[in-house]
Write a structure and sequence with these properties.
heterodimer, A: about 280 residues, alpha+beta, two-stranded antiparallel sheet, 9 strands, disordered N terminus, B: about 120 residues, two-stranded parallel sheet, two-stranded antiparallel ribbon
């Protein structure tokens, strides 16, 4: 924030810009909203969420967004309005929360994801449904390729990719795990730190691999076959058909029908989104 | 993989509903991560899909966009991301696990190899 300006500068500022507002003893000059294509719903990833929303919806430049200015969902507005004062301000976005449409904090993300990452990528036996402490020593040794006694980011990423990990923009697995085992600022973690962390999250010395997100096999006896998949999209079933607009074609005109490839060539479907 | 098998396999990106729009139940975005409001119509979803393909340098790959009823997403239980291989016979040859952990490119490649070898 700028320090209190001389009176002439404040007056000049108020004449030049659309609005000014005094905040906590400082004069904060609010500039006109930057030029934003109001129809666009994609922001600059280097902005904060508040910066994006303010630039798009704060049409009068008073550093607040009212329900009149926000022309999307009222439910979404209410979710953003953390202090329930009827307007959106920077303070609504200063802290992160877990539920109600707010962003989970890094600590929350670690709490949720680190046990799953541990259970997924430190397996040493054939039973992928659980991770027991005895497996950690063997798994740790495969990661610690320079035998330094600690796993670095490079070592983790190399070995976890061997174990099937793919790069993820949303999920920095190493950061999650090192943050949980050794602290946010740590660059690596030791076996001692990893096993200490394991002891905090495992019940009775076992960490169950979650059923969700394609991990683990749930409560199934060792060696038992996975439950039959009877879904219409199961292996062996005729693929559910669809006819969807082609992204690069003329909007609304070019439809691609999945069944049109039948008898011609296999089709690899990659489902996903930008976020 | 697309460059390796693209002559024999049709690769198709199916753009589905957002995983972490800033106004969703699981918001992420900003501070270096893609920041998107949840599309409410096809025009908006197309905009985001095009941005995604451009920013991730995926433009040469064929892509379709799921409709706002999320028909393809629901049929394939795809959200947030998932891989499938449909065999030449039109049957599901490989069904990947739900992402992010189940999104395993190596398994898809193995399925492609098996399909092309006629061993699937």
């Amino acid at each position: 924030m700028k320090p209190l300006s001389p009176p002439w500068a404040v007056l000049a500022g108020c004449l030049i810009f659309s609005a000014c507002r005094q905040t906590n003893g400082y004069i904060q000059l609010a500039t006109s909203p930057r030029a934003v294509t109001t129809a666009s719903i994609v922001g600059d990833s280097n902005e904060t969420q508040w910066q994006y929303l303010a630039a798009k919806y704060d049409t009068n430049g008073d550093a607040r967004i009212t329900t009149a200015e926000y022309d999307r969902s009222a439910k979404t507005f209410a979710g953003f309005d953390r202090d329930h004062n009827g307007v959106l301000e920077a303070t609504d976005f200063e802290r992160e929360q877990g539920r109600g449409g707010m962003r989970p904090s890094p600590a929350d993300m670690r709490r949720r994801m680190s046990p799953m990452i541990l259970a997924k990528y430190f397996q040493s036996d054939d039973d992928e449904s659980t991770l027991v402490r005895a497996e950690l020593d063997a798994a740790f040794a495969t990661y610690d390729t320079d035998d330094s006694g600690a796993i670095t980011r490079e070592e983790f990423e190399a070995q976890s990719q061997e174990r099937g990990a793919t790069a993820s923009r949303q999920l920095d697995r190493f950061a999650m795990l090192v943050g949980s085992a050794a602290g946010e600022d740590a660059a690596d973690f030791s076996l001692e730190q990893l096993t200490a962390y394991f002891d905090t999250v495992a019940g009775d010395g076992e960490l169950g691999a979650p059923r969700m997100m394609g991990m683990g096999r749930g409560d199934r006896a060792e060696g038992a076959a996975p439950p039959a998949d009877d879904a219409p999209n199961a292996v062996g079933k005729l693929a559910p058909d669809f006819a969807l607009p082609e992204l690069h074609g003329t909007a609304g005109e070019a439809l691609v029908r999945l069944s049109s490839f039948r008898g011609k060539r296999p089709v690899a479907l990659i489902f996903g989104s930008y976020t | 993989m697309w460059e390796t098998y693209g002559d024999d396999v049709q690769f198709l990106v199916v753009y589905i509903k957002e995983a972490h729009a800033i106004d969703s139940r699981s918001p992420l975005g900003g501070d270096g991560m893609p920041m998107v409001e949840d599309p409410v119509n096809m025009t908006e979803r197309l905009e985001v899909a095009k941005t995604c393909m451009t920013k991730l340098a995926l433009e040469p790959m064929p892509a379709v966009v799921d409709n706002m009823d999320n028909v393809a997403n629901d049929a394939y239980e795809a959200w947030p991301d998932r891989l499938y291989l449909i065999g030449r016979d039109g049957k599901v040859a490989y069904k990947g696990g739900p992402g992010p952990f189940g999104f395993t490119v190596e398994d898809l490649e193995a399925a492609i190899v098996a399909e092309l070898a006629g061993t699937h």
